[in-house]
Amino acid sequence: MTALFALATSLLWGLADFGGGLLTRRAPALTVVVVSQSIAAVVLGAIVLATGGWSEAGPRLWFAVAAGLVGPVALLAFYQALALGPMGVVSPLATFSVAVPVSVGLFLGERPGLLQVAGIAVAVAGVVLAGGPQLRGAPVQRRAVLLTLVAALGFGTVFVLITEASTNVTGLFLALFVQRVTNVVAGGAALYVSVRRGTPALPEGGLPPAALPAYGFVGLADVAANGTYAIAAQAGPVTVAAVLASLYPVVTALAARGFLRERLRAVQAAGAGLALLGTLLLATG
């Protein structure tokens, strides 16, 4: 159960990142975040009303609020780091977000077996390599590294917070809704400040209605990924769930290969293979 939902998380996050990356080529990153999360919030609000999720309101929702505040900060730090580049170094560094939930799991007393430890090491190495690390070329700015580590810490913190935000499926819908509303408010405030500074909020020609389904897919895939991760972490060891969920860069790379005909470098292909091997070790351990 844990492995299945965690792998679903990596699939959904990988596709959401791929879609979000495509959208940010035509619109500002903040606009993509706000629009996609707004659509997700509307859909989740309807689900909460239909399932009676408001009955699950309680102190745990503050974890969802915290996740909603941390998430946009981490995302913006990551986008800024990517802009500074080189992406071949920045992107793999962000996978160190897995360190936060794994550390929490170990602190709470989880002790993975020897085979699982080997699987964790192999899978993390595979994910880093699948990002296509750039070992030569332009030097990395210290600010880019710092921003990437801030993003990784933020992403990992969201992993932990969303797991604590609910204890059942109905409560999970409510927690995800609260998280998304907080995302929209925080992202909207940042977008407002950005516009006041002279940065356009919309691409040239405005936001075409035909693009809304793509924005909706990105927002809903991100929501679904948060939900499947919470279920995975509650059903089994957090150390296993977090590592398997962190395989999303492999999915993004494969999506780029399939849809954009981008060629995988040898190091990326090797990384994908290692990630698969690590997954098998974790699943059988």
Question: Can you offer a commentary on this structure?
Answer:
The chain contains twelve helices and no strands. It has one domain. It has 285 residues and is mainly alpha-helical. It has helices spanning 2-23, 29-51, 61-84, 87-93, 99-107, 114-130, 142-164, 169-196, 212-235, 238-245, 248-259, 266-284. The two termini are 14 Å apart. It is 76% helix and 0% strand. The relative contact order is 0.25. InterPro entries: EamA_dom (IPR000620), EmrE-like (IPR037185).
**Could you describe the largest sheet, including whether it forms a barrel?**
none
Unreliable runs? none
N-end to C-end Cα span: 14 Å
Following the backbone from N to C, one meets helices and strands in this order, namely: HHHHHHHHHHHH
Q: Would you tell me the overall average pLDDT?
A: 81
Which structural category fits the helices and strands?
A: mainly alpha
Coarse morphology:
globular
